[in-house]
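Saturday, quiet lab. Running sequence design on the structure tokens for the scaffold JK sent over.
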């Protein structure tokens, strides 16, 4: 790429990403539940409701608002006073910091708190609830949901950069449904606003604007899993698509952690039936030791008697913690001795936590699990913008 082209690329890249950073993100929340009625209350800040873009209602401090579905619209009530029926509702925060609580009534769910605002509309007989939230507030919520409250600052920084990279890379994933990302593991777990650890808020602020790009300066697919079991998978082993930065890595940081190993006992008759169903030939002369499958290093295929199948299919069919297992026969059972938890591609969360605790910084951690990547500071790119 010539310098001028590179320059233009940097400028466009900066404008695109910086624009997204200063924007809100629309996150479909409680998407696993079909919510028909919920209560909204204010924890901090000031709010107003706009119904169908025409009716504006100020929410008084300490008031409790009920939203419920009625045919094809949403009914708003303040205590028991009817306020109106609308097809599209926006609940907007007007103060510098705005925090609200949602308590689902039908079905009955635990109350949750979120930052910023809401967008509501009917969807297949239920209320579609969207948290319209500042991107950095969303990132803090995801870091807390994904990493819990007991991690180190350096790990939270790592998770924040991965979360931001993922959010921007997948910004249009749920566009057809009227939002950007969902709050479930399908996108990234986002249970509520970050509230249990100041370290998380600090880590998000410290890494503000940092994202991971590959050698072509595109945002990477920043996949992660719980524990690699001592070796990560390259992307093609699991998803059949090669990515220059998702390469297999020997990862001793993931050893001796809670999710480093697992075992599962499967009756031999069940295993034989399964193999036959998947086209394996089991000769009458087969010996016990023929069932022993050894995987000292990550493999893509399970092999038996000259036939093979994808380990990821076995993982899915038997709901195994990982594809990284060896087998041995014990009596009438096959024992699966497994390592790791999750698909194994990209960053191992428990390995990264171990790295952070033993003094590695977020740059070292990210570059250990993702190969040939750059952690780009958007502010540094301002130089090119000013040219
Ligand atoms: Zn999703």
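Result came back. Writing it out in full:
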């Amino acid at each position: 790429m010539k310098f001028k082209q590179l320059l233009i690329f940097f400028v466009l890249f900066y404008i695109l990403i910086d624009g997204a950073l200063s924007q809100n993100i629309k996150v479909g929340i409680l998407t696993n539940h079909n919510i028909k009625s919920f209560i909204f209350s204010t924890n901090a800040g000031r709010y107003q409701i706009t119904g169908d873009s025409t009716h504006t209602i100020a929410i008084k401090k300490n008031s409790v608002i009920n939203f419920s579905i009625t045919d094809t619209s949403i009914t708003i009530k303040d205590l028991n006073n009817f306020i109106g029926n609308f097809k599209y509702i926006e609940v907007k925060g007007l103060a510098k910091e705005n925090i609200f609580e949602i308590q689902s009534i039908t079905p009955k769910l635990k109350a949750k708190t979120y930052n910023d605002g809401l967008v509501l509309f009917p969807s297949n007989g239920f209320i579609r609830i969207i948290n319209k939230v500042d991107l950095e507030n969303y990132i803090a919520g995801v870091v807390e949901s994904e990493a819990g409250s007991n991690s180190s600052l350096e790990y939270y920084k790592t998770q924040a950069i991965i979360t931001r990279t993922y959010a921007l890379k997948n910004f249009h994933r749920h566009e057809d449904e009227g939002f950007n990302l969902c709050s479930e593991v399908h996108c990234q777990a986002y249970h509520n606003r970050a509230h249990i650890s100041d370290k998380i808020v600090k880590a998000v602020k410290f890494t503000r604007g940092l994202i991971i790009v590959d050698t072509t300066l595109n945002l990477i697919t920043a996949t992660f899993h719980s524990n690699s079991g001592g070796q990560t998978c390259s992307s093609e082993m699991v998803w059949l698509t090669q990515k220059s930065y998702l390469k297999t890595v020997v990862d001793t940081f993931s050893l001796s952690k809670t999710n480093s190993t697992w075992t599962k006992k499967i009756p031999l008759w069940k295993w034989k039936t399964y193999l036959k169903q998947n086209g394996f030939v089991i000769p009458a002369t087969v010996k016990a030791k023929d069932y022993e499958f050894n995987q000292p290093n990550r493999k893509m295929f399970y092999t038996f008697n000259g036939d093979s199948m994808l380990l990821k299919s076995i993982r899915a069919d038997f709901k195994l913690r990982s594809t990284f297992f060896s087998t041995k026969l014990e009596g009438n059972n096959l024992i699966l001795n497994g390592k790791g938890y999750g698909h194994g591609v990209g960053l191992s969360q428990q390995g990264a936590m171990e790295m952070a605790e033993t003094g590695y910084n977020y740059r070292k951690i990210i570059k250990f699990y993702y190969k040939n990547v750059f952690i780009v500071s958007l502010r540094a790119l301002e130089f090119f913008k000013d040219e």
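Notes for JK: Residues 3-21 form the longest helix (19 residues). Residues 35-124 form one domain. Ask whether to fix the surface positions before the next round.
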